[in-house]
Amino acid sequence: MNTTKSYIAKKVEEIKPSGIRKFFDLASGMEGVISLGVGEPDFVTSWSAREAAILSLEQGYTSYTANAGLLELRVEIAHYMKTRFAVQYAPKSEIIVTVGASQAIDIALRAILDPGDEVIVLEPSFVSYIPLVELAGGSAVAVQTLKENDFKVLPSQLEEAITSKTKAIMICSPNNPTGSTLSKEELKGIAAIAKEHDLLVLSDEIYAELCYDDEYTSLGAIEDMRDRTILISGFSKGFAMTGWRLGFVCAEESLIQAMLKIHQYSLMCAPTMAQFAGLDSLRNGSNDVEEMKKSYHRRRNYIVESLNEMGLTCHIPGGAFYAFPSIASTGMSSEEFAEKLLIEEKVAVVPGNVFGISGEGHIRCSYATSLEQLQEAMKRIKNFISNHS
Ligand code: PMP
């Protein structure tokens, strides 16, 4: 018999393990660690949404829903996207309820990529994009966004990266890990390039509810972009529902129907009780979202000011719940900084290099943790810096 490892598909073997995991594993064996590492809200899902899920179970809704999700929920998603973000998608044919935004990204890529097709990924980027492009049989072309441009891609960088094999550009605003947001004008710039080269744009809008300074603009709302956009979103961040595994994807009908083929065979449907909770979040959750947003906003201001004061220069992240300060002044690599900070001061952050080449020289600090914990973490980081200067 071959060794069991030899059965593993080459493309899976070649996927690198997530650099974030290593730090979680290290931190989980230690006591008294303050974690600024995790990318999830510190709020519990609203009681109203939890009750809606409980009620659905009490009423016996324990079977599959339609493959694309409860129609009632798709109608509510369509209404929410139209009233909140000015994008219009038909509930019956242009929306799929997915198992988190993660699955939406996966089926979108699998539906559009043939072997060799290229997808432009803007680094620093969410860690799943490149592995998911590769698992879908495509090639990821990484473009490095830079601190001096607030980690926003320049049109010239996109133009340079486009080849005859490019099929799509992946964007994420507000961004994980940098918190950068793309303005309407910047989105129009990307849209013009997508139109000129006849490309799709996968727009990960999972943090759309968490935008602090400007009104959010969805890529689907930019003129002529609706049919070129695969709009990915979900309930994890804005509605504090990470564990429910609920997201959705909106796109023009033929794209959605292609994604639905994959979804129906690989997953059937998103969990039924989670769909009931999501329905309640959309109907009754807007006040909770506002409250959470205000709280993140206060914490963002605090953390950015503190980091800048101690010499870890940090652009102001317009959204999400991450600060991405430079650690260049310490002379350490991002891994060295994160590892020493964890061991010496018991603060967990994520080294920027796990998000791509241009993430080196930075760390990602999630501020989705209480202000008291943040204050203590900032004290410890300040101490760490002075011990190493
Ligand atoms: N996109 C981005 C940019 C994210 O940060 C995350 C979660 N960390 C996801 C997608 C996945 O979210 P979900 O929980 O909905 O799968």
Automatic annotation (TrEMBL):
Keywords: Aminotransferase, Pyridoxal phosphate, Transferase
Name of the protein in question: Aminotransferase
GO molecular function: pyridoxal phosphate binding; transaminase activity
Presence of the UniProt keyword Membrane in the record: no
Source lineage: Bacteria, Bacillati, Bacillota, Bacilli, Bacillales
Family assignment from sequence similarity: Belongs to the class-I pyridoxal-phosphate-dependent aminotransferase family.
Domain Aminotransferase class I/classII large, residue spans: 32-381
GO biological process: amino acid metabolic process
Cofactor(s) the protein needs: pyridoxal 5'-phosphate
SUPFAM superfamilies reported for this sequence: PLP-dependent transferases (SSF53383)
Top-level lineage group: Bacteria
Record organism: Niallia nealsonii
A Pfam family: Aminotran_1_2
EC numbers, comma separated: 2.6.1.-
